[in-house]
Amino acid sequence: KQEVTQIPAALSVPEGENLVLNCSFTDSAIYNLQWFRQDPGKGLTSLLLIQSSQREQTSGRLNASLDKSSGRSTLYIAASQPGDSATYLCAVGYYGGSQGNLIFGKGTKLSVKP
Amino acid sequence: DAGVTQSPTHLIKTRGQQVTLRCSPKSGHDTVSWYQQALGQGPQFIFQYYEEEERQRGNFPDRFSGHQFPNYSSELNVNALLLGDSALYLCASSYRGREAIETQYFGPGTRLLVL
């Protein structure tokens, strides 16, 4: 059974700081990993998708890395802004049967203070 | 492209009632998956529909059922509602294509409150 864990559960930083969110998974047999952003009470916005053959993806101030062998991914946010405040979810694409094809962590709630 | 749409946006029901949620997939997509997200948790997979049939199912009771229509839109039905069914219900669509799994695109969700 695949399990996805995100650390920390919550994070509060001052504006302008660089920060790292962590995601770990128990089964390395994944076909991709995706980072989502979720604003309170809203749906999911896809930020970055890393295929299993890739090591990282970048979009603007965001950089996500993937290390399948160690079962880890990190999301790096540079020069954080108050508008980055949201919950960030990590999800692994997995041929898991009853778990479905996308297994989510519980998320990291980020607060960026002006 | 309208993306994935869901209706209604919010819903209030009482225990024991039945509810139907609706989802229209992104243009060109043929597969619809449903997820339940309780407060403070990550989304949990309910089931997936492709070619009007349930292809995969998560660990949810039979009170949760669904349907996919010929135009690929989908419904999620929940019978005999419990307080614990209160959650955000997310629909995701994808194109099955040659790969068994493709990137899923999520709708804005339906917030269900059971009193």
Question: Would you give an account of this structure?
Answer:
- The complex is a heterodimer of chains A (114) and B (115).
- Chain A has strands spanning 4-7, 10-14, 19-25, 30-38, 44-51, 56-59, 62-67, 72-77, 86-94, 102-104, 108-113.
- By secondary structure, chain A is mainly beta.
- In chain A, the strands form 2 sheets. In chain A, strands 2, 4, 5, 9, 10 and 11 form a 6-stranded mixed β-sheet that branches.
- Chain B is 0% helix and 50% strand.
- Chain B contains no helices and 11 strands.
- Classes of the chains: A mainly beta (114), B mainly beta (115).
What's the topology here?
The complex is a heterodimer of chains A (114) and B (115).
Chain A lengths: L3 E4 L2 E5 L4 E7 L4 E9 L5 E8 L4 E4 L2 E6 L4 E6 L8 E9 L7 E3 L3 E6 L1
Parallel strand pairs in A: 2-11
Antiparallel strand pairs in A: 1-3, 3-8, 4-5, 4-9, 6-7, 7-8, 9-10, 9-11
Chain B lengths: L4 E3 L2 E4 L5 E6 L6 E7 L6 E7 L2 E5 L6 E5 L5 E5 L8 E8 L10 E2 L3 E5 L1
Parallel strand pairs in B: 2-11
Antiparallel strand pairs in B: 1-3, 3-8, 4-5, 4-9, 5-6, 7-8, 9-10, 9-11
